[in-house]
Design a protein that fits this description.
Layout (H helix, E strand, L loop, with lengths): L5 H21 L3 E2 L6 E2 L4 E2 L4 E2 L4 E3 L3 E2 L4 E2 L4 E3 L2 E2 L4 E2 L4 E3 L2 E2 L4 E2 L4 E2 L4 E2 L4 E4 L2 E7 L4 E4 L2 E7 L4 E2 L4 E3 L9 E3 L4 E2 L4 E3 L2 E3 L4 E2 L4 E2 L8 E2 L11 H12 L1
């Protein structure tokens, strides 16, 4: 087939992608609505994996067996081990995902991310050059950049690693079985020891020893009846 126009190029690409989908299905991969998927010829997928409509598999992507890749996900140069669930609307580039991990929905794994066995990266979580150990979890609304998270650690909702000082990038090291409370900021370079707890809403700027509790926030002040008094003053002024 000759290609002399953009239209002919697109038509030939569609033909090659459909042939790739048919080859994968012959090898035991389930692809729902293959005509909606973009699967480049260089991609490898193991048997018993399910690919839902509108998925894009690009570059040197390698997917193991018994995985589920749900709709609107884009994988480029990604390595995915066996029995991985990637939920809807994830973007994963130049990253490795371990056996049994669960990703998404709406997760963004940027280059250099390494997600360990049985780890969870959930809703609206972004990683960049981050390593999560076995069973580690970052389930909600977090940013982990230039970070190492040990096995079994839990990253709460809204946690971010402050890895950039305006000139250089710095690393955050989180040990095993660490609990990082929601809405905490970890200002790199910093290390948090195994088994430590970080109180919710904390800004952590110093090393935290193993099994310690670190809290970096203002003490709560409660003034009884203040709101009612405020409303009364506003009424008198109006």
């Amino acid at each position: 087939m000759g290609v002399n126009t953009i239209e002919e190029m697109v038509a030939l690409e569609a033909k090659l992608q459909l042939e790739t989908a048919r080859r994968l299905m012959a090898e035991g991969v389930t692809i729902f609505k293959p005509e909606t998927c973009v699967i480049e010829a260089s991609v490898e997928v193991g048997p018993d994996t399910v690919i839902e409509p509108y998925v894009q598999l690009l570059g040197k992507t390698r997917i193991g067996s018994n995985c589920q890749i749900r709709s609107y996900t884009v994988l480029e140069n990604a390595t995915v081990a066996d029995s991985v669930l990637i939920r809807q609307n994830c973007v994963i580039t130049d990253s490795d995902i371990g056996t049994g991990a669960k990703i998404g929905p709406f997760a963004h794994l940027r280059p250099g991310s390494e997600i360990g066995e049985d780890a969870h990266v959930g809703n609206f979580v972004e990683t960049k050059k981050a390593r999560l150990g076995k069973g580690a979890k970052a389930n909600h609304l977090s940013y982990l950049g230039d970070a190492e998270v040990g096995a079994g650690s839990n990253i709460g909702a809204g946690v971010i690693t402050c890895n950039y000082d305006g000139v250089n990038k710095h690393t955050t090291r989180i040990g095993e079985r660490v609990f990082v409370g929601s809405d905490s900021t970890l200002v790199a370079p910093i290390s948090i020891g195994d088994g430590a707890y970080i109180g919710a809403g904390s800004c952590i700027t110093k090393e935290v020893p193993a099994d310690a509790l670190a809290v970096g926030r203002s003490r709560q002040v409660t003034k009884e009846g203040w709101a009612a008094s405020k409303r009364e003053r506003l009424k008198k002024q109006s």
